[in-house]
Amino acid sequence: ITGVAAGDSVTFGFGTMTAQAATSVTAATTLVQAIDIACAAAGAVGVNRAAWFNWAGNTYVVDNAAGVTLSAADVVVLLTGTVDLSNSAMAAGVLTIA
Q1: How far, in Å, CA of 98 to CA of 87, rounded?
Q2: Is the dihedral of CA 25, 19, 59, 63 positive or negative?
Q3: What is the pTM of this model?
Q4: Which helix (H) or strand (E) holds 41?
Q5: Is the pLDDT of residue 74 over 70?
Q6: With 0-12 CB in 10 A as exposed, 13-18 as middle and 19+ as buried, what is 82?
Q7: pLDDT of residue 1
Q8: Per-residue pLDDT tens for 33-60?
Q9: E runs forming strands in the chain
Q10: Sheet holding 49-55, edge to edge
Q11: Which is nearest to 79 in space by CA: 56, 59, 97?
Q12: Quick one: DSSP state of residue 37?
């Protein structure tokens, strides 16, 4: 998604999904590894959780359906540029950018 600004929202498929803070992916050497780290972080607190991280100048939000690695049920959204989602809100599967 390009041009994300405060007040924009992204709707995910899981209506009960809640947010998680930024995930450190410094140990990753590939984007796939970074996504798996984010899935593990989100999965550690249960199913239907989101984790986000910055990688190579972009921001990724991982909608983790279940488990601790990327699966066919998960969704990964790319936000163009480095976006700080720390103050953004997640409720009923909708991420509202702050």
Answers
A1: 6
A2: positive
A3: 0.88
A4: helix 31-43
A5: yes
A6: exposed
A7: 94
A8: 999 998 888 776 565 678 889 999 999 9
A9: 9-11, 49-55, 58-64, 75-79, 89-91, 94-96
A10: 49-55, 58-64, 75-79
A11: 59
A12: H
